[in-house]
Structures are given as C-alpha cells and as structure tokens.
Amino acid sequence: MILKQAAQLLRIMFPDASLISRYGGDEFAIVVEARDKENSMNAITQPLASEFPKLTGIEINFGMACYPEDGNSKDDLILVAERTLYLMKRETWLKREEHMLRSEKLRVVGELASGMAHEIRNPLTTIKGFLQLSKAGNYNIQPWYDLIMDEINRMSMLTAEFLQFSRPHVTQYRVQSLQSCVHRVISLLDSESTRLGHQIRFESLEEPVLILMDQDKMLQLLLNLVKNAFEAIPEQGIVSIRLSLADRDAILEIQDNGKGIPESELDKIFIPFYTTKDSGTGLGLSICHKIVQDHEGTIEVESELGKGTKFTITLPVQSPDSTSASVKKGELSIYA
Q1: Which of 31, 46, 252, 322 could make a disulfide contact with 318, Cβ separation 3.0–4.6 Å?
Q2: Which helix (H) or strand (E) holds 200?
C-alpha cells in the first residue's frame, strides 16, 4: 500500500518525467530531462526532501546523477546515483544515532537528577523537622545536634560522590603495575581488617602486570570493592584477590565469603542510587563501573546467597616498553 501510494505521488510530482519505475525493493527510479542542470536538480530535490515526507509521513533518501557529467551509460549513471543515495542513507543513519544517543544521555541525566533530588530531600526533611522542634523548644537544638550533623554529612558525601559523574577533571594515565596498587590497598586497609577480624589474601603472578591507569582512580575502585566485601561479611571472614592474565587482558577477581547478593538484585547493583544498605548513597558501585569503563575494561559480578560474592575486572595490559607513555584525559602526550 505504501509503495503504491509512493508511486502515485511521484507521478503527480513529476508529470513531465520520461520514466518513473519501481527499481527494486523499496526503491524507485525517475528519469527527467534537464535543460538547466541547477534548476532541474532544485526542482527534484525540493519535492523529494520536503513535500514527499509532509504528504506521506515517510522520510526518504535519494541520489541523483546527470548525463553526461556523471556518466555516458545507463550503468554508470545508476552507479553514481546509488552512491549518492548510500551517502544520504548513511548521513540519515548517523543523525538518527546521534539523536538516540542524545535522548539516552538526557534520560540518564533525568534519572540521576531525580535520584539526587530524592536522596537530598530525605535528609532535608529530617533537618527541617528537627529545626521545627527546636523552634518549639526555644531554639535549643542540643537534643538533635548529632542527628542533624549526621544528615548534613550524608548530603555532603552524596554531593561529593555525585560530582564524580559530572565534574570535568583532568585525569592522568600512566603505565603502572597493577600489583603495586593492590599491595597499596592492602596496606591502607590493614588496620580496618585487623579491627574487624578479616583477612585479605592476594594471589598474583611474579612478573609485573602493567596497566595504563590513573592510580588514584584505580585505588578508589579497589578500596570500594574491598570495603564492600568487608561490609558483606557478618563475622570474621576472608577477602581473596586473584590476579591473572588471559591473552592481552589482566583478570582481577575480588571474592568474599559473605552473605551474598540475591539474584534478583544483581542486575541493579551498578544503577546509581540503588542500595540495599541502611546507610550509603548507592553511588559506590556506579562509580566503580565508571572507573572501569574509563580504563577500557569490564566489570562483572557473581554471587550466591550464604556463600559470597565475586567481582571480576578485566583490563587491557600494556607492554613493558610502554612505561614512558603518559596520557592526559582528552589528549595524548608521549614523553620520551
């Protein structure tokens, strides 16, 4: 029905055409005598680009070729017309993809803004309630001072973490050893693991595993995951960190023997503001996911209730002769 409608409309638009034919599939061919090339091309382009979509609601692509400028034979002219048609299709597709990407970004920003507003509104409501009570008690906030400060600190922590998604910042990437980062994390968490009665076990390769990384972000990633593991273990437990190689990738596994995550929640843990904790912003694992993506890697999670959770991070490995390279986010600089 659409093809018939298109054919009838083409007959109306180009009454002086020498030929209007179904060319194949959803394509038509039109042959028009052009005494003035520029005017004739405008006379063809305007109805196809503007009137046809308005009348049918269908966006079309078209390509043109002129005799003898673009070819002396039918096959040559069709080849040129098909090439320009393909280029227009490609441009249309790229614009559609750009529009979809922009729409997706706006959707994500909307979700983040909605979550941020919700998370901030809760402590603000609490603080407002305490201030109203203090007004009734002659502005004595002493009974609620600690609770008010806790809520203010929670908002400060939330906004600080949220800014990591939105604030533009220069990130310095250097080729460094992944083992050194893990050892640094273990030393930073030594007192906390001793206090909680947990053990951190690290299994690694003897040779250095070199990664193009921002060390501060990599430390933040590992600290978040190991601290999450600590929180998931109700009593004394073990956090195992294993580093191995697979082809040109480094595989870093962080596993605990804690309470585990229900299967229904595994797909949600990287969503901003989603959390199962009584306290927390729900941004920790989202930030971890972003850090891994910024390092061109992947992060996956496996979990079983009562047995524990394992995060698997895959990162591209750099060769030892790349240690002099330094990359600033957004531009590439090589230092000899």
Answers
A1: 322
A2: strand 199-203
